[in-house]
Automatic annotation (TrEMBL):
Active site (record annotation): K264, R338
Pfam family, one: Peptidase_M17_N
Gene encoding the protein: pepA
Protein name (Swiss-Prot/TrEMBL): Probable cytosol aminopeptidase
Residues annotated as binding Mn(2+) 2: K252, D257, D275, E336
Enzyme class: hydrolase
Annotated source species: Ottowia pentelensis
Entry's family note: Belongs to the peptidase M17 family.
The Cytosol aminopeptidase domain, residue ranges: 332-339
Keywords: Aminopeptidase, Cytoplasm, Hydrolase, Manganese, Metal-binding, Protease
Enzyme Commission no: 3.4.11.1, 3.4.11.10
Transmembrane intervals: none
Repeat keyword on record: no
Binding of Mn(2+) 1, residues: D257, D334, E336
């Protein structure tokens, strides 16, 4: 949806010709003497409208208003979370109706981040998956929105940040939603390559030969059982001088997870097309970086492959050698995410990163622990953990830190290799993180387990785009003193990385 920012107070909103006027009303509204204030006061006095977050009152035509439709939406305390809830409900009510455009305004001065929350919610609520749906459903008529604020200058930066982030969230949702036969490793690589059309972004894609030559034995082991070739995607965003150490984002890109020989039960197995949501979130973050152009450097790494059972597939008990040189006994082929991630983490060392964050739909155990509300966070650095937690709160994309005591790694011991890939059922999200930590000793590291938050099941089945909001917020927070606009034009990053020996061939 096209969203613009405009100056609008209540009298101006009352006079505005628009198919639909959405007014966000917080607790303690004090009416002025304009027509809109009169409507709000009347609706509250009658008991038909309450300012509780998410409450709506929809009317068609109202005396003294130029708008065709009026929607009052309660936003409770006026906080960002309440604004998001209200706007989401309002867009759901208007979609499928006749209104082609919507004007949103605040009955009281918007609080911190209210403009961002409203703008992102408009975009999020109007996204519809279409790629494989044919023409069955006509697209919604609601295509345009105006966010009205009392002072445009004060809201401009927040508004731009919201639009950039929303583009990233939408891209992540789109790729995550596509079925596995429409989002193969090669197609994901194509999506990454398309991002490199933006100034400041560069993309390299490695295929099976390059990955074998590098010695990524754990990643290769997972890909063996599939007819789809693996891809290793390296994205680079250069918004700061080359000397500035990058943040490296590593996204799990299992485009379908059958479990392999340790095959999963049939029920809901289709949802394992979402096992590349970590990868999709990395693509989404780069889309947002292309828009927002912050003065930082970021590298994105995506090991992408399918996990399939086959005559050539890895078997329980097989031992493979990872890029780090550590040998791994694969006791359960369904614990494949950590196998592709461990080689990507070792690869990350070459960028001499300031921090490495991996993002993965890693464990069912994390879904049991935290459900769909907060992503699981693990970190080797308290400062990094704190920054990610705070970013999650600000972005309304929260996470919760879980422990990494060494005792949790006991179960990963084996007589046949340096480490086993599973440690038993208790604390499954933690043992998975302990496995990854063995490959993340060379830098500050955090791991986001998004198994519960990256998509929704049931009737609303679909990707959420999380944790793009959290990650973009964290990255923007790294820009301490913004350089003048002219100095912030992103440069094309140099191919090959810090000490890359890889001669990457074009693959897609
Ligand atoms: N992709 C799954 C994790 C998952 C499962 C995410 C269900 C969301 C919903 C991962 O590859 C996996 O299969 N993990 C196993 C690990 C186990 C074998 C130690 C799991 O969680 O069951
Ligand atoms: Mn699995
Ligand atoms: Zn998986």
């Amino acid at each position: 949806m096209d969203v613009e920012l405009a100056r609008l107070d209540l009298p101006a909103a009352a006079a505005r010709r628009t198919p639909a006027l959405l007014v966000l009303v917080a607790d303690g509204f004090a009416p002025g003497d304009d027509a809109l204030s009169a409507w709000i006061a009347k609706a509250r006095a009658s008991g038909d409208f309450k300012t509780e977050a998410g409450r709506l009152l929809h009317s068609y035509g109202a005396a003294g208003l130029a708008a065709e439709r009026l929607l009052l939406a309660g936003v409770g305390d006026g906080g960002a979370a309440a604004v998001r809830k209200a706007v989401t409900a309002a867009v759901a009510a208007l979609r499928g109706g006749g209104a082609a455009a919507l004007t949103l305004c605040f009955a009281q001065a918007p609080g911190a981040r209210a403009v961002q929350a409203a703008t992102q919610a408009l975009q999020d609520a109007s996204y519809r998956y279409q790629a494989t749906r044919g023409k069955a459903e006509p697209p919604s008529r609601l295509r345009r929105a105006t966010v009205g604020v009392p002072e445009v200058a004060a809201a401009r930066a927040e508004f731009a940040r919201a639009l950039g982030t929303a583009q990233g969230v939408t891209l992540a949702r789109e790729w995550a939603n596509r079925p596995a036969n429409h989002a193969t490793p090669a197609l994901l690589a194509g999506a990454a390559r398309a991002l490199a059309k933006h100034p400041g972004i560069d993309c390299q894609v490695l295929g099976p030969k390059e990955v074998a030559k590098l010695g990524m034995g754990a990643f290769e082991a997972v890909a063996r059982g599939s007819g789809e070739e693996l891809r290793f995607i390296v994205l680079r965003y250069g918004g700061a001088p080359k000397s500035a150490a990058p943040v490296v984002l590593v996204g799990k890109g299992i485009t379908f997870d059958t479990g392999g020989i340790s095959i999963k039960p049939a029920a809901a197995m289709d949802e394992m097309k979402f096992d590349m949501c970590g990868a999709a979130s990395v693509l989404g973050v780069f889309r947002a970086l292309a828009e927002l152009k912050p003065a930082i450097n970021v590298v994105g790494l995506v090991p992408a492959c399918e996990n399939m059972p086959d005559g050539r597939a890895i078997k329980p008990g097989d031992v493979v050698t990872s890029l780090s040189g550590q040998t791994i006994e694969i006791l359960n082929t369904d614990a494949e995410g950590r196998l592709v991630l461990c080689d990507a983490l070792t690869y990350a060392e070459r960028f001499k990163p300031r921090a490495v964050i991996d993002i993965a739909t890693l464990t069912g155990a994390c879904v049991i622990a935290l459900g769909g509300v907060r992503s699981g966070l693990f970190a080797s650095s308290d400062a990094l953990a704190g920054a990610l937690q705070a970013a999650g709160e600000r972005a309304l994309d929260p996470c919760w830190r879980l422990p990494l005591d060494d005792e949790y790694a006991e179960g990963l011991k084996t007589n046949f290799a340096d480490v086993a890939n599973v440690g038993g059922r208790p604390a499954g999200a933690v043992t998975a993180a302990k496995f990854l930590q063995r490959f993340a000793g060379a830098f500050d590291w955090a791991h986001l387990d998004i198994a519960g938050t990256a998509w929704k099941g049931g009737a609303a089945k679909g990707a959420t785009g999380r944790p793009v909001g959290l990650l973009v917020e964290y990255l923007l927070g790294l820009v301490e003193a913004p350089a003048p606009a002219a100095a912030r034009t992103p440069r094309k990053p140099v191919k090959g990385g810090a000490k890359s020996k890889t001669k990457a061939k074009a693959k897609a």
